[in-house]
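During the reporting period the student researcher (J.K.) took over the structure-prediction task from the postdoctoral fellow and processed the backlog of single-chain submissions. One of the processed entries is reproduced below for the supervisory committee.
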Amino acid sequence: MFGLAGSLEFVSGKVTELSMRLRDAPFVDIDAMLNEVIVSCKNISGAIEKVQETARKYLQERYNDDTKSTVLNEFHEIRNIDHDPTKRPRNLSDAEKKYLIYLGSCQPKLNTFPKNTEVKKSAQCRFSASWYNEYPYLEYSISNDTAHCFVCSLFPSAIEREKSDDAWITGTKSWHQMKGSQGKGKPGKLSQHFSSKSQKASLENFVHFCQEDQHINLLWDKEARAQMIDQERKI
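J.K. obtained the following structure tokens:
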């Protein structure tokens, strides 16, 4: 608020200075004085706009802080729900969905992920955190060493999901098949799922749910909001 007060004092000082010059120097070059008035008023106008913008910013921050506090208080009333996709229940309330969306996809980055001993040594035999970069709704369960889809987990009953495989909800760990080693020219499991109709149906429900609740939009950081907007364009 001190910055706002200083800006107002600056504007007040400029107005007083210009007024005194006009009053105390009546016989100067009129054209020069009028040009000075024009320039001074332009500078004062710019300063006033900055004051207005600063005031709006303070008001928005106060609103955001109050609203965020209210939403976070609501989260405290939610039963202890685990972020790990294997441990979270299949049927979630709207409040639980909001809480999990606030947390975001469960994406732990371990120094070394467990090895799937059923996969031959020459193939990809463990989960890779680098996959998160390409698939922002990919999740990993530490408790079960399995991969999951965040939006399918939140909205498992979306239309188009009736006949779909639940593997990305219950968990999958075919690491050697994730990035296109299922056969020549055939996409991997990651690409197949995250471009499938069932995933897009859950994603559409996810986007609609977020748009319906302005509190979620407020709590997300800029990167998370940008990701959702980008995904919405692809639906």
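The committee noted the following: Strands lie at 138-141, 146-149.
J.K. will present the remaining backlog at the next meeting.
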